Amino acid sequence: MERDEIDFGTLKVSVLFRKLFIPTLFGMLSISAVTVADGIFVGHGVGSDGIAAVNIYVPLLMLFQGVGLMIGIGCSVVASIHLSRAKVKAARLNVTQAMIIVTALTLLLSLLIVVFPDRTACLLGSSDRLLPLVKDYLLWFTPALVFQMWTAVGLFVIRLDGAPKLAMWCSVVAALLNVVLDWLFIFPLGWGVMGAAFATAISVSVGGVIVVVYLSFFARTLRFCPLKRSRKSLRLSLRNVGYQCRIGSSALLGEATLAMLMFVGNLTFMHYLGDDGVGAFGIACYYIPFVFMVGNAIAQSAQPIISYNFGAGVRERVIEAAQIALATAVVCGAVVTAVFIGSPRLLVGLFLDPATHAARIAIEGLPWFALGFICFIVNLTAIGYYQSLERVGIASGFALLRGFVFLVPSFLFMPRLCGTEGIWLAMPLSELLTALVILGVSLWRRQRIG
């Protein structure tokens, strides 16, 4: 297992950020590629109904992923501060507690979903026509959620342990395996949506196993350690993980924003444009995790630098890391926006024949949807900054604004004001309003401190 020596306290901040960001970005994009590979093969092997069915399930996956990111970020922040103060044993305890709690919680919730598949699918907004396809995906992928959660938490720890390249390859291997299995299960074997779910389940399981093996046997500092089995130890573990959840709560809200975007968007498109509308929106939702992962990669690359130096009391390095992260967010956001505005037909054509009704809806709507990407990535970076400083209230407040306070009303009122284009513009409006609030709060805090 390759391990990189990284000194968060003395290495030049720009070099340190680049050393973390490049492998983190490729790793994050590989995670998104798992989902997109599903969409491409499902779109060509099953059709727009298959894409719509998977998109119905995705909000549930996003919520689980959000819990994993919440605990992973909280664990990483706490462990970073412990390491900056030479408390290695405390850092290991926090990592071990986080992985045990997330495993138990995921297994319990997964069991409930598998036992009640019809009710779960209906709660997610499935129509009668899409219900069999949604159930197929749900029943074959849900048992692998625990491996997905191990990956979500463990990649933070692996990067903090000084092995960002290993974290990247953990995601890349899972993504490549998923592509191969998607093709095999959907086309030669003809398993349809069930095949896509089974392929994704296998690929995320491989990634989760790599994480656990590394943290068990190969980690340089943050190895698993034994926990006491007394009631007092259990209470302390729950308290520590609760604190981690509080720190990382805005990450859960960030994923909940995606889940809410997809859930409310599915309902809105279903209301105005029917199943084909949901299929068109599903294509956009296959791409939005890419945008999310770019912002997430920037925030996660800056997080250990900011948290470590914040714990060490080196304010200048904290500010420099934040400035580099914000500049990276603006540049990445502009590049992604240009790609989506300039090539909607090509991007949609990867999933569906451009001549189909669902594809035409997506081609017309994707450029409007892409107008929100710069603010989307900048907002994620700003939230990650406050998260890294343990400013939980501010980070959570911003996450609530973009995910609920602004997003739901935008979906309700924009279609009435702008017609079909208004549905696509709901997310950009929500992100723009959130960015303005973040800017206002940041200027106010700077004046207050100055």
TrEMBL record:
Transmembrane segments annotated in the record for this chain: 20-44, 56-83, 95-117, 137-159, 166-186, 198-222, 243-265, 277-299, 324-346, 366-386, 398-417, 423-444
GO term, biological process aspect, one: response to antibiotic
Entry's localization field: Cell membrane
InterPro entries (UniProt xref): MATE_fam (IPR002528), MATE_MepA-like (IPR045070), MATE_MepA_subfamily (IPR051327), MdtK-like (IPR048279)
Main location class: membrane
Record's keyword terms, sorted: Antibiotic resistance, Cell membrane, Membrane, Transmembrane, Transmembrane helix, Transport
Membrane topology: Multi-pass membrane protein
Pfam families: MatE (PF01554)
PANTHER family: MULTIDRUG EXPORT PROTEIN MEPA (PTHR43823:SF3), SPORULATION PROTEIN YKVU (PTHR43823)
Protein family: Belongs to the multi antimicrobial extrusion (MATE) (TC 2.A.66.1) family. MepA subfamily.
UniProt-recorded name of the protein: Multidrug export protein MepA
UniProt source species: Alistipes communis
Lineage: Bacteria, Pseudomonadati, Bacteroidota, Bacteroidia, Bacteroidales
